[in-house]
């Protein structure tokens, strides 16, 4: 990928002292340098020089300092400071070569050794103000001591009360009911996910989440309502207080996010763009214009230079980041023109899913793609049927679809096997959930000890189940739109995203 840089060139050499001043320079009211009375080793000969150095005026022109402009502060090698225009004029009048002596101490300096300084704040010494601060500090110390004493008294009383309660417990033992005992045994024998934290920022609306186990990071597509801008919110999954918003030039809802091992984010959405963003630099490094909105994108699982994007027209776009001008391939099947919900690259195949069926684009020996139907036991080929796919997830040996069929959501778990170089999809098990309203959530799954766990949303609840039974359920404050799972080898992370809150659950591996 060609990168055209436009470096900002500095005017002149490092020896050049007359800094370029813009007509729009932000001049400050002249600032004064405070007196410094800490030196106690000054001789009588240097008293006058030190007084001039620490005064509030330039030692050459006797005018007050400024923080910008022609009379801004320029510092010599010896540390003495003068107005920039004054020291330039002094050098031109007194010396012809590049080196000259300091007007105060006489130390030799070269032009390149003079630097302009910008004090962020100059505070004149005010003894009355210092006395006031000292008095306030003493009062605060006294108040702190009083609170510490009160806290010690309260802690002592708490210990005494706890001892009394413990004595009652020993006299009146509580026998738990059979149901309570069963719940305790189950909680001790079956460890599950626990809520780690929930993240919600005022004025932010969320749409999609992606988990990066290499960085222990969750990335959420975000819309900031007050500033009317779209971007990503990075969140540390162990410490959610460590978070940062990355602005992008997306102009509409970001529908899908994918991460790569080299710290890149791929995103697409309703603004008809596909963008590649550096997480570490918080910078969009590549952007492609699409022919239609998109809900699905992906990195190639072998070559990270290849990018895929599924359009609302059913077309699959293939890009190479080394080609910045446009797409590498545009894959269109005239019989399939429905919006793509999922794009999953696997080897030389790209598994695509629209609202009716799943199929693959296979790369042949001639380096040409051909569309192949994917036959699943539960897949309905009739587009007039009410059976509609809402979610797809795929791992190394499992393929899961969630579809609407009448008044219920059906979840189908398929095992993937390889026979003679061909992937075979066989249904392992399925479950149906009665729902008056369809769930538009992107569900997920994971495997543990050769057992597949399905994670799906029901309105404001997230459910985890296996083939035989439900294992856990979590209540949320609103409908969940996206569920993601990952592991870093130490913990498993499960993220559930609603319109305004990210819920992070953890499980110790």
TrEMBL record:
Residues in coiled coil: 130-157
Keywords on record: Coiled coil, Cytoplasm, DNA damage, DNA repair, Metal-binding, Nucleus, Repeat, Transferase, Ubl conjugation pathway, WD repeat, Zinc, Zinc-finger
One example of a Gene Ontology biological process annotation: interstrand cross-link repair
Every RING-type domain range: 58-105
EC number(s) stated in the UniProt entry for this protein: 2.3.2.27
InterPro entries: RFWD3, WD40/YVTN_repeat-like_dom_sf, WD40_repeat_dom_sf, WD40_RFWD3, Znf_RING, Znf_RING/FYVE/PHD
First-listed, main subcellular location of the protein, grouped into a coarse class: cytoplasm
Xref: PANTHER family: E3 UBIQUITIN-PROTEIN LIGASE RFWD3 (PTHR16047:SF7), RFWD3 PROTEIN (PTHR16047)
Name of protein: RING-type E3 ubiquitin transferase
